[in-house]
Amino acid sequence: MEAIETLSTGSGSVRENVHDSNVWIHLGVLSTLGVDLPETAKILDFGCGAGGTVRALRARGYLNACGYDVGDGRTLVRDDRDQMKVGTLLDLRLPYEDNTFDLVISDQVFEHVQDQVRAFEELLRITKPGGHGLHIIPARYAPIEGHILVPFGGVLQHRWWYKLWASFGIRNRFQAGLSADETADQDAFFVSEATRYITTSCYRVIFREVGFQYRFAEQEFFDSHHRPSMRAIGKLGSPAMGLYRTFRSRIVYLSKPDSPKWARRP
């Protein structure tokens, strides 16, 4: 939520600071996990948007960082186009060779991916044996769904629920002036068309079946955080980590075994 609020100021330098912070979060978690990432590492930001995190990585010396997203690429500036690739929702084969990347990262992306099994199969394919992944995935049971701002809107996906809250005045910034019915229709369409919130228990199965080794790294996230208040929360241990994972975000560390036992689906 802090990133969303900061971005709303419209300052380009503030936007870059947000991406800088995201980079430090990812690198801090990896370092706490004992992952030594040389500057020559090939890094993919999966769901890179306009490429801010890729630029922040490259500014820190990771010149082999690149990005991938779906869409038409209109948000990319000319200098970014060599580092960013754009695909479509209908083509889930990523445009990279097998065993390409040392690290694949994402931040608040997978809640928008409809076929997440296929996506993780592709990430496994393009990750080098012994390579890593670090993904921040919003929680299914978040008290406020981050896009439509409806309480528990990610799990209670009913139009009547959205209309109830719209009647109380709950709208995102794109819905100002809409009636409760119009807002509820937009919310219902958005969560159906553009979101898929998967439970943590199901993610455990997906990672195992796809072929990744995995662990949930919320403890490392808090322990390595630049804010003292966050590090203090980390000292509360497993109960606090479980609450964060359930109601805020999953911090997922993945690694590809040196000899993975997996078979791509036809």
Summarize the structure.
It contains 10 helices and 7 strands. By secondary structure, it is α/β, with parallel strands linked by helices.
What does this protein structure show overall?
- The chain is built from 10 helices and 7 strands.
- The chain has 266 residues and is an alpha/beta fold.
- It folds into 2 domains: 2-140 and 198-255, Rossmann fold; 159-194, no CATH class.
- It starts with a helix and ends in an 11-residue tail after the last strand.
- It has a 7-stranded mixed β-sheet with strand order 3-2-1-4-5-7-6, sandwiched between helices.
- 39% of the residues lie in helices and 17% in strands.
- Mean pLDDT is 88; it is low at 1-15 and 262-266.
- Helix 2 (12-32) packs across helix 3 (52-59) and helix 5 packs across helix 6 (180-194).
Relevant terms:
single chain; 266 residues; alpha/beta; Rossmann fold; 2 domains; seven-stranded mixed sheet; 10 helices; 7 strands; 39% helix; disordered N terminus; disordered C terminus
